[in-house]
């Protein structure tokens, strides 16, 4: 039977990030994806112009519906936006004893739109991170979670150890936004660090990379791979998706989730 994975995140009307990116990524890895929508955003490749949080009872109803019917081998969270939504989602996952959870602590859009309210950060630390198999902050998110200024690889390690103290079993600090080191990610398991490196690809078309990377990790976990292998394969996938990114729209175009298709005779 095909493996199933769940994304709990916001909707991106531009299709490059959020649940749209997650579902494309699951499909690209041969995993069936289901979704719980937490918020609706009005956005494109240029900017997020508006966001609306869905009512808590509707989020809870979605969670009940999918968990009552599907057998999820892994799940990920993305945009949760408010303290109440974080607590609602964390409570639902805690009650079900969910094991393979990837937390992408989405806090701010590429255009600078705040996607997580300030009063929700403590709820992420205290309620959500203890449930995570792995949390995947970028440099900016790692700074907000750890309270540390990250200006070197050593400080990435310090931030990872600090975030690990909030309860996740593993912390993956992503270095793609770092000015001091290009495309190096550090995974900390509480005892040792694993380093994942790739070529830095100079392109403006990177919309949805964080969503896609974390979804790829969730997909590989759903397929039964250990975390280090899942991160390695997800890193390879996102690097190739960026290398073949799509120059569409007037701003930051999206990654290419199906870069490996490309053949004009695909359906012949």
Instruction: Give the number of DSSP strands.
Output: 9
Shape descriptor: globular
- The CATH architecture comes to 3-Layer(aba) Sandwich
Q: CA-to-CA gap between the ends?
A: 27 Å
What characterizes the major β-sheet?
Answer: 6 strands, mixed
Q: What's the helix count?
A: 8
SSE order, one letter for each helix or strand:
EHEEHEHEHEHHEEEHH
Helix content: 25-40%
Low-confidence stretches: none
Quote the average pLDDT: 92
What Rg is obtained from the alpha carbons, in whole angstroms? 17 Å
Report the oligomer. Answer: single chain
Strand % is 15-25%
CATH class: Alpha Beta
Task: Provide the structure class.
Answer: alpha/beta
Task: State the strand order across the main sheet.
Answer: 3-2-1-4-5-6
**Total tally of structural domains:** 1
CATH superfamily placement? Ribokinase
> Under CATH, the topology is which?
UDP-N-acetylmuramoyl-L-alanine:D-glutamate ligase
Protein traits:
alpha/beta, three-stranded antiparallel beta sheet, six-stranded mixed beta sheet, single chain, 8 helices, 19% strand
Describe this structure in words.
The protein has a single domain (4-243), classed as Ribokinase (UDP-N-acetylmuramoyl-L-alanine:D-glutamate ligase), CATH 3.40.1190. It has helices at residues 18-28, 56-69, 83-95, 121-128, 139-146, 153-164, 209-222, 227-243, and strands spanning 4-12, 32-43, 48-53, 72-77, 101-103, 134-135, 171-173, 184-188, 193-197. The mean pLDDT is 92. The chain has eight helices and nine strands. Strand 1 (4-12), helix 1 and strand 2 form a beta-alpha-beta unit. With 268 residues, it is an alpha/beta fold. Helix 1 (18-28) crosses helix 7 (209-222), helix 3 packs parallel to helix 4 (121-128) and helix 5 (139-146) packs across helix 6.
């Amino acid at each position: 039977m095909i493996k199933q994975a769940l994304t709990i995140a916001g909707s991106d009307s531009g299709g490059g990030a959020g649940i749209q990116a997650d579902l494309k990524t699951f499909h690209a890895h041969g995993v069936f994806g289901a979704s719980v929508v937490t918020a609706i955003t009005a956005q494109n490749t240029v900017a997020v112009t508006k966001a609306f949080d869905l009512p808590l009872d509707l989020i809870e109803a979605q969670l009940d519906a999918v968990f009552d019917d599907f057998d999820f081998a892994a799940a990920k969270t993305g945009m949760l936006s408010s303290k109440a939504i974080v607590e609602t989602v964390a409570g639902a996952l805690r009650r079900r004893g969910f094991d393979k959870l990837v937390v992408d602590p989405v806090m701010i859009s590429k255009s600078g739109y705040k996607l997580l309210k300030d009063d929700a950060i403590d709820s992420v630390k205290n309620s959500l991170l203890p449930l995570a198999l792995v949390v995947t902050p970028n440099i900016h998110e790692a700074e907000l979670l750890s309270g540390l200024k990250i200006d070197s690889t050593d400080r990435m390690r310090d931030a990872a150890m600090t975030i690990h103290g909030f309860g996740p079993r593993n912390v993956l600090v992503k270095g793609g936004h770092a000015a001091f080191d290009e495309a190096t990610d550090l995974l900390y398991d509480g005892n040792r660090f694993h380093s994942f490196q790739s070529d830095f690809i100079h392109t403006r078309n990177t919309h949805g990379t964080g969503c896609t990377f974390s979804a790829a990790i969730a997909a590989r976990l759903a397929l039964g791979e250990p975390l280090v292998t899942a991160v390695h394969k997800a890193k390879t996938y996102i690097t190739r998706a960026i290398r073949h990114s799509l120059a569409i729209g007037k701003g930051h175009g999206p990654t290419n989730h199906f870069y490996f298709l490309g053949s004009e005779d695909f359906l012949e």
